[in-house]
From TrEMBL:
Lineage: Eukaryota, Metazoa, Ecdysozoa, Arthropoda, Hexapoda
Family: Belongs to the thioredoxin family.
Residues annotated as domain Thioredoxin: 9-124
GO cellular component term of the entry, any: cytosol
Pfam families per the UniProt record, alphabetical: TXD17-like_Trx
GO molecular function, one term: protein-disulfide reductase [NAD(P)H] activity
Protein name: Thioredoxin domain-containing protein 17
Superkingdom per UniProt: Eukaryota
């Protein structure tokens, strides 16, 4: 069963990952730009990827945590000091980005729209 959470901003993300137990379910985070009044992100690539990622996660029958992380508005994201860019655990360069927490797997940009790559990302490493 996929547990879905929404996190807004770096501080909320940071607080949440500090609560993750190493024995807990696998955690996957999807980083996207803030939503505009119409409910879509300011980031066009995020707008394209989000419905694909959400549909995939809704159909998935695995025990994992799926976190949607709002990285902020365009100026905040573009800043060289954006904590999502500078955090050594993340080192985000583009959005959307999907990462497996405490893993090395990640999808960036248009890779996030590829269902076969999403499937490989969630497969167990056993």
């Amino acid at each position: 069963m996929v547990t879905k959470i929404d996190l807004v901003g770096y501080e909320e993300f940071k607080r949440y990952v500090e609560t993750l137990d190493s024995k807990a379910s696998k955690a996957i985070f999807y980083f996207s730009g803030t939503k505009l009044a119409d409910g879509t992100s300011w980031c066009p690539d995020c707008v394209e990827a989000e419905p694909i990622v959400k549909t995939f996660m809704n159909e998935l029958k695995k025990d994992l945590i799926f976190g949607y992380v709002d990285v902020g508005d365009r100026p905040s994201w573009k800043s060289a000091t954006c904590p999502f860019r500078t955090d050594p655990r993340l080192k985000l360069m583009v959005i959307p980005t999907i990462i497996v927490w405490k893993g090395v797997q990640r999808l960036e940009g248009t890779q996030c729209t590829k269902v076969d790559l999403l499937q490989m990302l969630v497969e167990d490493e056993e």
